Amino acid sequence: LLQRTTRSLSLTEAGQRFYDACLRVSEDVAYAEALLHKGKTALSGRLSITAPSDFGREYVAPAIAEFTQLHPQVTPYLHLTDTVENLIEQRFDVGIRFGNLPDSSLIVKPLADNHRVLVAAPSYLQQHGTPNTPDDLHKHRCLVLEQRAELLNAWQFINQHKQQTINVSATLASSDGAVIRQWAIAGLGIAYKSIWDVKNDINAGRLHTLL
Q1: Which spans in 59-161 are helix H?
Q2: Does an H or E element contain 146, and which?
Q3: Residue 204 reports pLDDT greater than 60
Q4: b/e per residue, 47-68, with b = 16+ CB within 10 A?
Q5: Considering the chain, what is the average pLDDT of its residues?
């Protein structure tokens, strides 16, 4: 690889080829390390997220706005629906949902505790009265969420440390939880909502909790 004389040291032809090959390997390693470093510091690409309607508007959308300021090379896509989507078939990267995870093959990370509350507007309660027991809901106007042509009208309560399920009749129904919330605020009936969807309305006095 080396050609020696009494006064100089130089590469042979084979040595030059070997040196050039080593140089290319060194450059490739440096490039690979740069890519690895870039992957740790700069996120990029499309990020598909699905979330419930109310929760997505109130919490996820503002979080995405803040996230894109920190990671401008990421292109988020936010799909809002109260229907539980198949993340793999619909090609979502992240799904935010209330309740238990029915598919154990997915990875779940709890974000916060959640429970459902019965709510109605002051105007509705003034006109129709306040239910005192879950059974009283049969006499009231109920706003019911619909998923895949099925009414989610089996509302569950804890009564004297026992779970009680009331199958309410739907006065109004929608597949969009945000619509249910708006109807409740407008005084059109009683809604069964996640506390995260309505806690700001409760704090502002737009809705009252029942039972």
Answers
A1: 61-70, 122-128
A2: strand 142-147
A3: yes
A4: bbbbbbbbbbbbbbeeebeeee
A5: 85
Which of the four CATH numbers 3.40.830.10, 3.90.1150.210, 3.60.40.10, 3.40.190.10 does domain 46-112 have? 3.40.190.10
Q: 71 and 43 in contact (C-beta within 8 Å)?
A: yes
| Confidence bin at 163 (pLDDT 50/70/90) | confident
Placement of tokens 């990020």 in the chain = 47
- Tell me the backbone φ, ψ of residue 152, rounded to 5 degrees: -90, 70
Tokens of 111: 């974000």
Q: Which fold has domain 116-210?
A: D-Maltodextrin-Binding Protein; domain 2 (3.40.190)
Round to whole Å and give the CA distance between 203 and 152: 26
- Alpha helix positions (H), 42-135: 53-55, 61-70, 122-128
Extract the tokens encoding 189: 């009936």
3-state SS class at 22 = helix
